[in-house]
Amino acid sequence: MKPESTGRIYWNGEMETLGPEQQRAIEEPKLLRQLEYAWRASAFYRRKWRAAGIDPRQIHCAEALVTLPFTEKDELQETQEATPPFGANQCVPLDQAIRMQATGGTTGRPLRMTLTRHDVAIYNELGARGGWAAGMRPGDLLFECMNYSLYAGGVSDHLSFEHLGACVAPVGIGQSKRLIEILRDVRMETCLWSTPSYALHLARVAQDHGIDPVSLNIRKGFFSGDAGLAIPSYRRRIEDALGLVASDIYGLGELGGFAAECRYRDGLHFLGQGLLIAELVDPASGQAIALRHGAVGELVYTTIDRESCPLIRFRSHDHVRVSTAPCPCGRTGFRFRVLGRSDDMFIVKGINVYPLAIQDLVLGFAPVLTGEFQVILPDPPPITYDPPVRVEAGDGVDPAEFPALRDRVTVRIREILMFTPDVEVVSFGCLPKTERKARRLYRRYRGETP
After folding, report:
1. Euclidean distance between the first and final Cα of the chain, in Å?
2. Counting Cβ atoms within 10 Å, is residue 22 exposed (0-12), middle (13-18) or buried (19+)?
3. Under CATH, domain 1-267 is a member of which superfamily?
4. CATH topology assigned to domain 346-446
5. What gap in Å lies between CA 210 and CA 205, rounded to an integer?
6. Is 360 left (phi over 0), alpha (psi -120 to 50) or beta?
7. What's the Cα-to-Cα distance from 309 to each of 113, 117, 304, 312, rounded to whole Å?
8. Average pLDDT over residues 31-48
9. Does residue 28 sit in helix, strand or coil?
10. pTM for the complete prediction?
11. Mean model confidence pLDDT for the chain
Protein backbone atom coordinates (compact mmCIF):
# COMPACT_ATOMS: atom_id res chain seq x y z
CA MET A 1 0.00 0.00 0.00
CA LYS A 2 1.72 3.18 -1.17
CA PRO A 3 1.27 6.40 0.85
CA GLU A 4 -1.03 9.01 -0.57
CA SER A 5 1.49 11.81 -0.05
CA THR A 6 4.94 12.42 1.34
CA GLY A 7 3.37 14.28 4.26
CA ARG A 8 1.86 11.08 5.52
CA ILE A 9 3.18 9.63 8.77
CA TYR A 10 2.91 5.92 7.89
CA TRP A 11 3.79 3.76 4.94
CA ASN A 12 0.89 1.45 5.77
CA GLY A 13 -1.26 3.20 8.35
CA GLU A 14 -3.88 0.45 8.40
CA MET A 15 -1.40 -2.19 9.56
CA GLU A 16 0.91 -0.01 11.65
CA THR A 17 -1.93 1.22 13.87
CA LEU A 18 -3.83 -2.03 14.36
CA GLY A 19 -5.42 -2.75 17.73
CA PRO A 20 -4.68 -6.11 19.39
CA GLU A 21 -7.95 -7.78 18.41
CA GLN A 22 -7.74 -6.57 14.82
CA GLN A 23 -4.18 -7.81 14.61
CA ARG A 24 -5.10 -11.23 15.95
CA ALA A 25 -8.02 -11.53 13.52
CA ILE A 26 -5.64 -10.93 10.61
CA GLU A 27 -2.65 -12.92 11.81
CA GLU A 28 -4.10 -16.07 13.35
CA PRO A 29 -5.64 -17.49 10.14
CA LYS A 30 -2.45 -16.68 8.24
CA LEU A 31 -0.36 -18.42 10.91
CA LEU A 32 -2.44 -21.60 10.71
CA ARG A 33 -2.16 -21.60 6.91
CA GLN A 34 1.61 -21.08 7.13
CA LEU A 35 2.00 -24.01 9.54
CA GLU A 36 -0.05 -26.30 7.31
CA TYR A 37 1.97 -25.15 4.30
CA ALA A 38 5.30 -25.76 6.05
CA TRP A 39 4.16 -29.27 7.06
CA ARG A 40 3.19 -30.05 3.49
CA ALA A 41 5.96 -28.31 1.53
CA SER A 42 9.04 -28.36 3.80
CA ALA A 43 10.80 -31.68 4.36
CA PHE A 44 12.90 -29.87 6.97
CA TYR A 45 9.92 -28.96 9.13
CA ARG A 46 8.16 -32.29 8.67
CA ARG A 47 11.22 -34.12 10.02
CA LYS A 48 11.73 -31.60 12.78
CA TRP A 49 8.15 -31.67 14.01
CA ARG A 50 7.78 -35.44 13.71
CA ALA A 51 10.94 -35.85 15.78
CA ALA A 52 9.34 -33.61 18.43
CA GLY A 53 6.10 -35.61 18.30
CA ILE A 54 4.10 -32.61 17.08
CA ASP A 55 1.57 -32.32 14.28
CA PRO A 56 1.14 -28.59 13.57
CA ARG A 57 -2.15 -29.33 11.82
CA GLN A 58 -3.58 -29.86 15.29
CA ILE A 59 -2.72 -26.28 16.28
CA HIS A 60 -5.85 -24.15 16.18
CA CYS A 61 -4.82 -20.89 17.85
CA ALA A 62 -1.87 -18.53 17.98
CA GLU A 63 -1.19 -19.31 21.65
CA ALA A 64 -0.23 -22.88 20.71
CA LEU A 65 2.68 -21.62 18.61
CA VAL A 66 4.87 -21.93 21.72
CA THR A 67 4.50 -25.73 21.61
CA LEU A 68 6.61 -25.88 18.44
CA PRO A 69 10.40 -26.16 18.67
CA PHE A 70 12.66 -23.25 17.77
CA THR A 71 14.45 -22.98 14.45
CA GLU A 72 18.18 -22.23 14.64
CA LYS A 73 20.28 -20.91 11.80
CA ASP A 74 22.80 -23.71 12.18
CA GLU A 75 20.04 -26.26 11.52
CA LEU A 76 19.32 -24.57 8.22
CA GLN A 77 23.05 -24.52 7.48
CA GLU A 78 23.25 -28.25 8.12
CA THR A 79 20.32 -29.10 5.88
CA GLN A 80 21.77 -26.90 3.14
CA GLU A 81 25.04 -28.83 3.27
CA ALA A 82 23.22 -32.17 3.31
CA THR A 83 20.79 -31.23 0.51
CA PRO A 84 22.42 -28.60 -1.71
CA PRO A 85 21.94 -26.03 -2.98
CA PHE A 86 19.22 -24.71 -0.63
CA GLY A 87 18.44 -27.48 1.83
CA ALA A 88 15.27 -29.28 2.79
CA ASN A 89 13.41 -26.06 3.66
CA GLN A 90 13.26 -25.02 0.02
CA CYS A 91 9.52 -25.24 -0.61
CA VAL A 92 9.18 -24.21 -4.26
CA PRO A 93 10.82 -25.35 -7.50
CA LEU A 94 13.52 -23.08 -8.80
CA ASP A 95 11.38 -21.86 -11.67
CA GLN A 96 9.16 -20.12 -9.08
CA ALA A 97 12.06 -18.38 -7.34
CA ILE A 98 13.33 -15.04 -8.65
CA ARG A 99 16.10 -14.20 -6.17
CA MET A 100 18.83 -15.92 -4.19
CA GLN A 101 20.46 -14.17 -1.26
CA ALA A 102 22.68 -15.28 1.57
CA THR A 103 23.26 -14.52 5.22
CA GLY A 104 26.14 -15.42 7.51
CA GLY A 105 26.18 -19.03 8.70
CA THR A 106 27.70 -20.44 11.88
CA THR A 107 30.25 -22.45 9.90
CA GLY A 108 31.50 -19.35 8.10
CA ARG A 109 29.81 -20.41 4.87
CA PRO A 110 26.79 -18.40 3.72
CA LEU A 111 23.27 -19.59 4.43
CA ARG A 112 21.55 -19.46 1.05
CA MET A 113 17.85 -18.91 0.57
CA THR A 114 15.53 -18.11 -2.32
CA LEU A 115 12.56 -15.78 -2.61
CA THR A 116 9.54 -16.02 -4.86
CA ARG A 117 7.98 -12.95 -6.42
CA HIS A 118 5.44 -12.98 -3.57
CA ASP A 119 8.23 -13.25 -0.96
CA VAL A 120 10.03 -10.31 -2.54
CA ALA A 121 6.83 -8.25 -2.34
CA ILE A 122 6.60 -9.05 1.39
CA TYR A 123 10.27 -8.20 1.89
CA ASN A 124 9.75 -4.89 0.09
CA GLU A 125 6.67 -4.09 2.16
CA LEU A 126 8.53 -4.65 5.43
CA GLY A 127 11.52 -2.62 4.24
CA ALA A 128 9.30 0.24 3.10
CA ARG A 129 7.53 0.35 6.48
CA GLY A 130 10.90 0.53 8.23
CA GLY A 131 12.41 3.10 5.90
CA TRP A 132 9.32 5.31 6.05
CA ALA A 133 9.16 5.20 9.85
CA ALA A 134 12.84 6.22 9.99
CA GLY A 135 12.22 9.25 7.76
CA MET A 136 13.09 8.05 4.24
CA ARG A 137 10.90 9.62 1.56
CA PRO A 138 10.39 9.78 -2.21
CA GLY A 139 12.74 12.46 -3.49
CA ASP A 140 15.58 11.33 -1.23
CA LEU A 141 18.82 10.52 -3.06
CA LEU A 142 20.04 7.53 -1.05
CA PHE A 143 23.60 6.24 -1.41
CA GLU A 144 23.57 2.58 -0.42
CA CYS A 145 26.88 1.42 1.02
CA MET A 146 26.02 -2.13 2.02
CA ASN A 147 27.58 -5.28 0.62
CA TYR A 148 25.91 -6.24 -2.68
CA SER A 149 27.67 -9.62 -2.83
CA LEU A 150 24.65 -11.84 -2.02
CA TYR A 151 24.11 -10.02 1.30
CA ALA A 152 20.48 -9.05 1.93
CA GLY A 153 21.50 -5.54 2.98
CA GLY A 154 22.61 -4.92 -0.59
CA VAL A 155 20.24 -5.79 -3.41
CA SER A 156 17.20 -6.72 -1.33
CA ASP A 157 17.23 -3.58 0.80
CA HIS A 158 18.04 -1.50 -2.28
CA LEU A 159 14.86 -2.73 -3.96
CA SER A 160 12.84 -2.23 -0.76
CA PHE A 161 13.83 1.43 -0.72
CA GLU A 162 13.08 1.78 -4.42
CA HIS A 163 9.65 0.35 -3.59
CA LEU A 164 9.26 3.14 -1.04
CA GLY A 165 10.09 5.66 -3.75
CA ALA A 166 13.61 6.74 -2.84
CA CYS A 167 16.18 7.24 -5.59
CA VAL A 168 18.82 4.66 -4.64
CA ALA A 169 22.44 4.79 -5.81
CA PRO A 170 24.13 1.34 -5.58
CA VAL A 171 27.58 2.19 -4.18
CA GLY A 172 28.41 -1.01 -2.28
CA ILE A 173 31.59 -1.31 -0.23
CA GLY A 174 35.19 -0.44 -1.04
CA GLN A 175 34.17 2.71 -2.92
CA SER A 176 34.63 5.42 -0.29
CA LYS A 177 36.93 7.70 -2.32
CA ARG A 178 34.66 7.47 -5.34
CA LEU A 179 31.60 8.13 -3.18
CA ILE A 180 33.21 11.25 -1.72
CA GLU A 181 33.88 12.54 -5.24
CA ILE A 182 30.25 11.91 -6.24
CA LEU A 183 28.89 13.52 -3.08
CA ARG A 184 30.91 16.65 -3.79
CA ASP A 185 29.77 16.69 -7.42
CA VAL A 186 26.00 16.30 -6.88
CA ARG A 187 25.78 19.49 -4.76
CA MET A 188 22.57 18.58 -2.96
CA GLU A 189 21.47 17.11 0.35
CA THR A 190 21.67 13.32 0.27
CA CYS A 191 21.12 10.24 2.44
CA LEU A 192 23.28 7.28 3.46
CA TRP A 193 22.34 3.62 4.05
CA SER A 194 25.18 1.72 5.71
CA THR A 195 26.41 0.15 8.90
CA PRO A 196 27.14 2.65 11.69
CA SER A 197 30.83 1.74 11.56
CA TYR A 198 30.97 2.57 7.85
CA ALA A 199 29.70 6.10 8.51
CA LEU A 200 32.69 6.77 10.74
CA HIS A 201 34.97 5.10 8.20
CA LEU A 202 33.65 7.42 5.49
CA ALA A 203 34.24 10.46 7.72
CA ARG A 204 37.84 9.33 8.35
CA VAL A 205 38.52 8.84 4.64
CA ALA A 206 37.22 12.35 3.94
CA GLN A 207 39.39 13.83 6.69
CA ASP A 208 42.43 11.93 5.38
CA HIS A 209 41.91 13.74 2.06
CA GLY A 210 41.59 17.15 3.69
CA ILE A 211 37.80 17.28 3.29
CA ASP A 212 35.40 18.29 6.06
CA PRO A 213 32.95 15.35 6.28
CA VAL A 214 30.08 17.72 7.05
CA SER A 215 30.65 19.40 3.69
CA LEU A 216 29.65 16.15 1.95
CA ASN A 217 26.05 17.25 2.64
CA ILE A 218 24.72 13.90 3.87
CA ARG A 219 21.80 15.00 6.01
CA LYS A 220 19.96 11.73 6.70
CA GLY A 221 21.72 8.56 7.80
CA PHE A 222 19.87 5.25 7.90
CA PHE A 223 21.88 2.56 9.65
CA SER A 224 21.69 -1.17 10.28
CA GLY A 225 23.95 -4.21 10.49
CA ASP A 226 25.32 -3.63 13.98
CA ALA A 227 23.87 -2.22 17.16
CA GLY A 228 26.02 0.91 17.48
CA LEU A 229 23.13 3.36 17.45
CA ALA A 230 21.83 1.77 20.65
CA ILE A 231 24.66 3.69 22.35
CA PRO A 232 23.78 7.42 22.55
CA SER A 233 27.41 8.56 22.49
CA TYR A 234 28.11 6.49 19.36
CA ARG A 235 25.06 7.96 17.65
CA ARG A 236 26.20 11.49 18.53
CA ARG A 237 29.67 10.72 17.23
CA ILE A 238 28.25 9.71 13.84
CA GLU A 239 25.89 12.67 13.71
CA ASP A 240 28.63 15.14 14.65
CA ALA A 241 31.16 13.62 12.26
CA LEU A 242 28.92 13.90 9.18
CA GLY A 243 26.38 16.54 10.23
CA LEU A 244 23.40 14.25 9.75
CA VAL A 245 20.42 12.87 11.65
CA ALA A 246 20.98 9.16 12.34
CA SER A 247 18.08 6.69 12.29
CA ASP A 248 18.17 3.03 13.24
CA ILE A 249 16.54 0.32 11.11
CA TYR A 250 16.57 -3.22 12.45
CA GLY A 251 16.06 -6.51 10.69
CA LEU A 252 17.39 -9.94 9.89
CA GLY A 253 18.77 -10.90 6.51
CA GLU A 254 16.39 -13.84 6.45
CA LEU A 255 13.33 -11.65 7.02
CA GLY A 256 13.94 -8.03 5.99
CA GLY A 257 14.01 -4.67 7.75
CA PHE A 258 10.90 -4.94 9.90
CA ALA A 259 11.63 -2.53 12.76
CA ALA A 260 12.77 1.07 12.90
CA GLU A 261 12.88 4.22 14.96
CA CYS A 262 10.29 6.88 14.29
CA ARG A 263 11.02 10.60 14.55
CA TYR A 264 10.70 10.45 18.35
CA ARG A 265 13.73 8.12 18.59
CA ASP A 266 12.32 6.20 21.57
CA GLY A 267 13.17 2.64 20.56
CA LEU A 268 12.59 0.46 17.51
CA HIS A 269 8.97 -0.03 16.43
CA PHE A 270 8.09 -3.59 15.44
CA LEU A 271 6.47 -3.15 12.02
CA GLY A 272 5.74 -6.73 10.98
CA GLN A 273 2.00 -6.68 11.63
CA GLY A 274 0.19 -9.09 9.33
CA LEU A 275 3.44 -10.56 8.00
CA LEU A 276 5.49 -11.71 11.01
CA ILE A 277 4.68 -12.85 14.53
CA ALA A 278 7.18 -11.87 17.21
CA GLU A 279 7.64 -13.66 20.52
CA LEU A 280 9.85 -12.90 23.51
CA VAL A 281 11.60 -15.83 25.19
CA ASP A 282 14.14 -16.46 27.90
CA PRO A 283 17.38 -17.07 25.95
CA ALA A 284 18.57 -19.73 28.40
CA SER A 285 15.40 -21.74 29.10
CA GLY A 286 13.42 -20.93 25.94
CA GLN A 287 10.33 -20.20 28.04
CA ALA A 288 7.91 -17.62 26.68
CA ILE A 289 7.91 -14.15 28.23
CA ALA A 290 4.90 -11.86 27.88
CA LEU A 291 5.52 -8.82 25.65
CA ARG A 292 4.92 -6.39 28.50
CA HIS A 293 6.50 -3.03 29.25
CA GLY A 294 10.02 -3.51 30.60
CA ALA A 295 10.25 -7.21 29.74
CA VAL A 296 13.70 -8.46 28.74
CA GLY A 297 14.43 -11.47 26.57
CA GLU A 298 15.29 -12.77 23.11
CA LEU A 299 13.09 -12.05 20.11
CA VAL A 300 11.86 -15.00 18.04
CA TYR A 301 10.06 -14.61 14.70
CA THR A 302 7.59 -16.64 12.63
CA THR A 303 6.73 -15.87 9.03
CA ILE A 304 3.02 -16.13 8.27
CA ASP A 305 2.98 -15.37 4.55
CA ARG A 306 6.07 -16.90 2.95
CA GLU A 307 6.32 -19.33 0.06
CA SER A 308 9.92 -20.32 -0.52
CA CYS A 309 11.58 -20.71 2.88
CA PRO A 310 9.14 -20.34 5.78
CA LEU A 311 10.70 -19.74 9.17
CA ILE A 312 8.85 -20.95 12.25
CA ARG A 313 9.98 -19.69 15.66
CA PHE A 314 13.29 -18.52 14.20
CA ARG A 315 15.68 -17.41 16.92
CA SER A 316 17.25 -13.99 16.43
CA HIS A 317 19.64 -14.28 19.40
CA ASP A 318 19.08 -10.55 19.91
CA HIS A 319 18.55 -9.71 23.57
CA VAL A 320 16.16 -6.77 23.94
CA ARG A 321 14.14 -4.69 26.38
CA VAL A 322 10.50 -4.15 25.38
CA SER A 323 8.43 -0.99 25.68
CA THR A 324 4.66 -0.96 25.28
CA ALA A 325 4.17 2.66 26.34
CA PRO A 326 2.22 4.66 23.73
CA CYS A 327 4.35 6.50 21.19
CA PRO A 328 3.29 9.98 20.00
CA CYS A 329 3.69 8.78 16.41
CA GLY A 330 0.59 6.60 16.83
CA ARG A 331 2.13 3.25 15.84
CA THR A 332 0.71 0.52 18.03
CA GLY A 333 3.34 -2.22 17.73
CA PHE A 334 5.65 -2.79 20.67
CA ARG A 335 9.03 -1.06 20.71
CA PHE A 336 12.35 -2.48 21.78
CA ARG A 337 15.98 -1.62 22.41
CA VAL A 338 18.74 -4.09 21.58
CA LEU A 339 20.88 -4.90 24.61
CA GLY A 340 23.21 -7.26 22.75
CA ARG A 341 23.27 -10.62 21.06
CA SER A 342 22.58 -13.52 23.39
CA ASP A 343 25.07 -15.66 21.43
CA ASP A 344 27.73 -12.92 21.91
CA MET A 345 27.10 -12.77 25.62
CA PHE A 346 29.79 -14.37 27.75
CA ILE A 347 29.74 -15.05 31.48
CA VAL A 348 32.66 -13.99 33.65
CA LYS A 349 32.55 -15.47 37.13
CA GLY A 350 28.74 -15.43 37.09
CA ILE A 351 28.37 -11.97 35.46
CA ASN A 352 26.63 -11.70 32.07
CA VAL A 353 28.66 -9.47 29.74
CA TYR A 354 27.64 -8.05 26.34
CA PRO A 355 30.22 -6.48 23.98
CA LEU A 356 27.73 -3.66 23.38
CA ALA A 357 27.97 -2.66 27.05
CA ILE A 358 31.76 -2.61 26.82
CA GLN A 359 31.53 -0.43 23.71
CA ASP A 360 29.37 2.06 25.59
CA LEU A 361 32.02 2.45 28.30
CA VAL A 362 34.97 2.58 25.90
CA LEU A 363 33.32 5.34 23.88
CA GLY A 364 33.11 7.37 27.07
CA PHE A 365 36.91 7.74 27.00
CA ALA A 366 36.96 9.70 23.74
CA PRO A 367 39.15 11.33 22.51
CA VAL A 368 41.95 9.51 24.37
CA LEU A 369 40.43 6.26 23.02
CA THR A 370 39.01 5.89 19.52
CA GLY A 371 36.15 3.63 20.62
CA GLU A 372 37.55 0.64 18.73
CA PHE A 373 38.01 -2.46 20.86
CA GLN A 374 38.27 -6.24 20.79
CA VAL A 375 37.34 -8.85 23.38
CA ILE A 376 39.44 -12.01 23.03
CA LEU A 377 38.48 -15.16 24.90
CA PRO A 378 41.41 -17.62 24.80
CA ASP A 379 39.79 -20.45 26.73
CA PRO A 380 36.27 -21.93 26.74
CA PRO A 381 33.80 -21.44 29.58
CA PRO A 382 33.75 -21.33 32.50
CA ILE A 383 35.56 -18.01 32.25
CA THR A 384 37.32 -17.76 35.59
CA TYR A 385 40.13 -15.63 34.15
CA ASP A 386 40.19 -11.89 33.43
CA PRO A 387 39.14 -11.70 29.75
CA PRO A 388 41.54 -9.74 27.52
CA VAL A 389 40.12 -6.47 26.15
CA ARG A 390 42.12 -4.47 23.60
CA VAL A 391 41.34 -0.78 23.27
CA GLU A 392 42.82 1.68 20.80
CA ALA A 393 44.45 4.94 21.86
CA GLY A 394 43.38 8.14 20.18
CA ASP A 395 45.47 9.88 17.57
CA GLY A 396 48.44 11.61 19.20
CA VAL A 397 48.15 9.92 22.61
CA ASP A 398 51.66 9.33 23.98
CA PRO A 399 52.45 5.63 24.63
CA ALA A 400 53.81 6.74 28.00
CA GLU A 401 50.18 7.39 28.95
CA PHE A 402 49.05 3.86 28.07
CA PRO A 403 49.57 2.29 31.54
CA ALA A 404 47.48 4.96 33.30
CA LEU A 405 44.84 4.76 30.57
CA ARG A 406 44.74 0.98 30.93
CA ASP A 407 44.15 1.31 34.66
CA ARG A 408 41.34 3.85 34.15
CA VAL A 409 39.54 1.59 31.66
CA THR A 410 39.96 -1.42 33.94
CA VAL A 411 38.48 0.40 36.91
CA ARG A 412 35.58 1.80 34.86
CA ILE A 413 34.60 -1.61 33.48
CA ARG A 414 34.91 -3.22 36.90
CA GLU A 415 32.75 -0.54 38.53
CA ILE A 416 29.98 -0.55 35.91
CA LEU A 417 29.95 -4.06 34.45
CA MET A 418 31.11 -5.89 37.57
CA PHE A 419 33.94 -7.90 36.06
CA THR A 420 37.68 -7.28 35.81
CA PRO A 421 39.14 -7.20 32.29
CA ASP A 422 42.76 -7.67 31.29
CA VAL A 423 43.03 -4.39 29.36
CA GLU A 424 45.66 -3.78 26.70
CA VAL A 425 45.98 -0.31 25.13
CA VAL A 426 47.29 -0.38 21.56
CA SER A 427 48.46 2.50 19.42
CA PHE A 428 46.20 4.50 17.13
CA GLY A 429 45.52 2.66 13.88
CA CYS A 430 46.36 -0.81 15.23
CA LEU A 431 42.77 -2.11 15.35
CA PRO A 432 41.07 -2.73 12.00
CA LYS A 433 38.37 -0.43 10.68
CA THR A 434 35.67 -2.03 8.57
CA GLU A 435 33.05 -1.06 6.02
CA ARG A 436 31.05 -4.14 7.03
CA LYS A 437 29.62 -5.16 10.39
CA ALA A 438 32.07 -4.35 13.16
CA ARG A 439 33.16 -7.50 14.97
CA ARG A 440 34.09 -7.11 18.61
CA LEU A 441 34.24 -10.63 20.13
CA TYR A 442 36.71 -13.37 19.21
CA ARG A 443 36.71 -16.84 20.76
CA ARG A 444 40.20 -18.15 20.13
CA TYR A 445 39.25 -21.55 21.49
CA ARG A 446 37.01 -21.88 18.42
CA GLY A 447 39.77 -20.80 16.07
CA GLU A 448 38.49 -17.20 15.76
CA THR A 449 41.32 -14.67 15.37
CA PRO A 450 41.26 -10.87 15.01
Report:
1. 45
2. middle
3. ANL, N-terminal domain (3.40.50.12780)
4. GMP Synthetase; Chain A, domain 3 (3.30.300)
5. 9
6. alpha
7. 7, 13, 11, 10
8. 98
9. helix
10. 0.86
11. 93
